[in-house]
User: Fold this.
Amino acid sequence: MNPILDAHVLQTRRQLLGRSASALGAAALGTLLHEDTARGDSTANGGLPDLPHHFPKAKRVIYLLHNGAPSHVDLYDHKPRILEWHGKQIPDEVQGGRRLSTMTSGQTARPVLKPLAPLRPHGESGAWVSDLLPHTAAIVDDLCFIKSMHTDQVNHAPAITHFMTGFQRPGRPSMGAWLTYGLGSDTQELPGFVVMTSRDKEATCGQIFYDYYWGNGFLPSKYQGVKFRGVGDPVLYLSNPQGMSRAVRRGLLDDLARLNEIKLNEFGDPEIATRIAQYEMAYRMQASVPDLTDFSNEPQHILDMYGPDVTRTGSYAYNCLMARRLAERGVRFVQLMHAGWDQHRNLTTQLAIQCQDTDAPSAALVTDLKQRGLLDDTLIIWGGEFGRTPFLQGKIEDRARWGRDHHPYAFTIWMAGGGVQPGLTYGSSDDFAHNVAENPVSAHDLQATILHLLGIDHERLTYRFQGRHYRLTDIAGNVVGPVLA
Assistant:
């Protein structure tokens, strides 16, 4: 009897797989603890060795996701036919029996509703923008509008999940997780993937920010988004306990890393390596986050450009300025989510409020990055999970309760910087802004295009899980070539 040999022969499948990965785990730990040596001349922290696949136009992404779905009819998609048909039943052949949410599926009267404010052409490009968005209108020649977006998800959570993860059900990695997995990060002082959320001050929208919108799915958890809170410390437990100095914290983390290293060498579990990395990141963030959130060095004219809400922690304006500061510091993916656009019964009041709160900060972010020379390699995306119906939800005589229902069949987003063609309007909807009429763009097409701008072939960035290879674009998606600069 040889107890050592018997132990190896009788080990479980889990033990075999765990121990066989220990060499890889040790290498990962070495990279974490000796990053400067491991990186050599590269500035990237982590990432796959064969990426990028081609020369990237963008280094980073700021995704301004407007939960609840802004109304493309009221903001960007000018249609004279809608003005002519205001108050009349939308033609049956236009609506075509398409699926609606339960809020209007039983509504037989569907009168066309004109925009609440005039839309006008602006800039040399002549892009149409509502009078409710004067700051956005002033920068249209820096923007690339896609007016032929469409999706097959008619409710908020599945539609947002589809845009952010490539699938309508939770469980897959979000876009930011895919990018930090594939490309790594350009900073060691902050996470490579940061999330911030805000909502309308009136709290009219019941949309929930689910963690899986920025989750890592089946990727190691080190790739999940780090949410910066809108109240108190941006990250919980970042501050040292009272009486603990930074030197004491450093010694504690060193001892903890040695204990975790023992377990990592024993089991090779990548989540142990993640834990070591996250402790180290938290330690660095203790020094970097206070500087990040200190706006005292921002010139007054910059603060004024973002609007009066910029100093209110957790507001959309505050988060937009934070997004610029994160981009400056090398954060790969900033996901900024703002709720309040789900205007089923309060379009006549809440639409203007939402535009007032978000217009100046969105435009300021583009202008600010451009002035600093960062727009060329920073891709900004502005849009919702779908649009709003061109017909009324409610009764035409009850103006105070006018609204629009969810509309996935045609809507508008815009992008700026990062290798997209400025001053371009791509695609179009029909005369009622109801269906795509030309050059349809799906969520997967948008994802493929974003990855392409970052130097990634979307069909080649994959991860094997439960016996098959997955990718952000699932089994679809084509790069939208005409929007590329």
Remarks:
- The radius of gyration is 24 Å.
- The chain has one domain: 60-234+300-483.
